[in-house]
Amino acid sequence: MFSNFDFGVIPLSLPFIWQGLLYSLKLTATAMTGGIILGTLLALARLSGGVVLGTISTFYVNTLRSIPLLMVILWFFFLIPIFTGSPMGAEKSAMITFTLFEAAFYAEIMRAGIQSVSRGQINAGYAIGMTYWQTMGHVILPQAFRNMLPVLLTQTIILFQDTSLVYAIGAKDLLKAAEITGKNYNRPVEMYIFSAVVYFAICFSLSMLVKHLNKRIAIIR
Amino acid sequence: MIEINKVSKWYGSFQVLTDCTTQIAKGEVVVVCGPSGSGKSTLIKCVNGLEPIQQGNIAVNGTAINDPKTDLPKLRARVGMVFQHFELFPHMSIIKNLSIGQVKVLGRSEDEAHAKGMKLLERVGLKAHANKYPGEMSGGQQQRVAIARALSMDPICMLFDEPTSALDPEMINEVLDVMVELAHEGMTMMVVTHEMGFARKVANRVVFMDQGKIVEDAAKEEFFGQPRSERAQQFLSKILHH
Amino acid sequence: MNYHWNWGIFFQQVSSSDDTYLDWIITGLGWTVAVAMSAWVIALVLGSIMGTLRTVQSKPLVMVGTVWVELFRNVPILVQLFIWFFVVPELLPRDLSLWVKQDMPGKEFFTATLALGLFTSARVAEQVRAGIQSLSRGQRYAGLALGFTEAQTYRYVILPMAFRFIIPPLTSEFMNAFKNSAVAFAIGVMDLTFISRQMVEESGQVIESLLAATVLYVICAMAANRVMSFIEKRSHVPGFILAK
After folding, report:
1. Could you tell me which of C100, C107, C97, C75 has the C-alpha nearest to residue A1?
2. Domain A9-220's class?
3. Between chains, do A200 and C75 touch, taking CB under 8 Å as contact?
4. What is the tens place of the pLDDT at every residue in B125-171?
5. Residue of C68, C75, C111 to mutate when probing chain A, most A C-beta within 10 A
6. CB contact under 8 A, C78 and A189
7. d(Cα B205, Cα B220) in Å, to the nearest integer?
């Protein structure tokens, strides 16, 4: 079945693939860090009870969650040059897009996490004289973060998979690198298979980690 | 009718049942009691093969439960079971709960099953509720329906797994009344319960279990008069004194 | 920002064609709906089977379900799409392979539907499994004690309730099917994403083009949401309160 295949192309292409994978990982790490920070702020804004902040945050989260990521990628890619007057480059544009997009998803997770911490914890914070921000920072968020760690990680696995969508604007990620080398060596089939294996290996290991975390958290509770 | 012979069962390395032996004759009512975690609920679930056993054997009406050749569904259809938490099917109306087994397992017609279901509902005093859903009824009512559901299959014997322990106190009697009536009619019954009043009234024998073992298996009078084991004495004095 | 707005663009004719841009958009919507809906049917059927398999007594069947889910869940949808489109035809017998590559009608559509359907089936399977496992053991016992076979117990007792439990997460997956269908453009399905990109190229009206597609995606997702909440209301069990 694989008799016509020549997987010898894989070692030849490794350096180039490695560059692509690095970009995919960098994009994931950036969007995760930025997304969680921004997402937490959005969640706090939504839970603050303030009308203006709450409405803006809710609108932001709901809008981005109902649009395909591919469309959002295109929006940023085409709009940024219109606003700034000069093209930004697919790689950079994707960094901004993913951070802002993922923030909407992390926001919902953090909101659930904050709500999973009992109301009594807030009162306990206030009772020992902490301010709102101190209570949030020292008491609520650490617990929320711990409770939601598996879900945050699951979202990050999805994020990592989604980075392949930068294909639409031609950024050189793992998939694009595989495609380019596949074309250069005239071995596209082998390179597609190879990229799928790499994605699978990374995502599967991470999902095993999530399973492990879930078990540990179940014990802590 | 029910023969339990040297039955042992493990969950992983934890032994839940050790060498349990007892028999229930046709028309006999046997109450199984014992402290929580003594294995009595596990034992009764082994009788119709809901829980597998690793050692010993169980036979119902001469059919071995743990024989791989036994058609378990067919056997279970003839063994009625009533659960602690009723386990009515929440997405079916009461009458549907009573007819589904008759139609899908026994192959009766819808009409026949419906008629039989209504007759049994009347018997447990719930005819007016036929078209309600389980979630709309009290626990006591649900448990009476569950008994009717078991009866709808024309069982040759009945298993009760703590039928009243999830009920509010004021509902316990309505369920026990149905069970007492059933016992008087000569139904073979194995009943896991703490209701010693019920045991006194209708049981022929009482089986007392502790830590997965059958510690005492005696006629009712003997058990309540002078239990041989110390554990049974302690247990009785605890639950009879309040 | 100097952007030249032109909302009339939709009624203008596409150069080198008889169609207006509006015709294009409608075609795109049609393909998006077609891919998403057909994929959803595949996902629902296969996902229900695989999710159920993961809960049965037989170890080999559980394994089948597990491998299925892990395989389709851990590779990005776009990569899976390319595998189905570029790789799988190479693995087929010679004649079939040639036919697929050269003559198969609607190849892009069928490939996209299959890929999205299988990808989504893994997620549906996970929800189905969770739904089944959230039911009490007692319900399973009750079905078996009544004389049902394992299959009958699933059919009459477990699955009807499990599906009711998981309507909310299935709703998100249905909406996701529409969103994820956007990858179909990459193999040449003329869906909303493909059309809006094309329209940007042809007309240069970036905002109008993207906005039209975006709004239609949102409407699709909302429609999916409405359909599911209709089903949820219809399947409501009287007196039954979802325990949280």
Report:
1. C97
2. mainly alpha
3. yes
4. 999 999 999 999 999 999 999 999 999 999 999 999 999 999 999 99
5. C75
6. no
7. 5
Q: What DSSP string runs through C136-195?
A: -HHHHHHHHHTT--HHHIIIIIIHHHHHHHTHHHHHHHHHHHHHHGGGGGGGT---HHHH
Intra-chain end-to-end CA distance of chain B, in Å = 35
Residues A145-157: pLDDT tens digits? 988 999 999 999 9
Asked if B133 and C157 come within 8 Å (Cβ–Cβ), the reply is: no
The minimum CA-CA distance between A70 and chain C, rounded to whole Å, is: 7
Give the closest of C138, C156, C238 to B85, CB-based.
C138
Coil, strand, or helix at residue B57? strand
Pairing of strands B205-210, B2-11: unpaired
Q: What residues make up the domain containing C143?
A: 20-235
What are the structure tokens assigned to B96, written together?
């549907």
For residue C163, the domain's CATH number is: 1.10.3720.10
| Overall number of domains in chain C | 1
Residue C125 lies in a domain: yes
For residue B36, what is the DSSP state?
T
User: Among partner residues C1, C78, C182, which is closest to A71 by beta-carbon distance?
Assistant: C182
What is the value of ipTM here, to two decimals? 0.91
Q: What is the mean pLDDT of chain B?
A: 92
Nearest CA in chain C to B153: C146
Max distance between CA atoms of chain C, in angstroms, equals 75
Contact B53, B5 (CB under 8 A): no
Residue C15 lies in a domain: no
Residue C9 domain flag: no
Neighbours of chain C (3+ CB pairs under 8 A): A, B
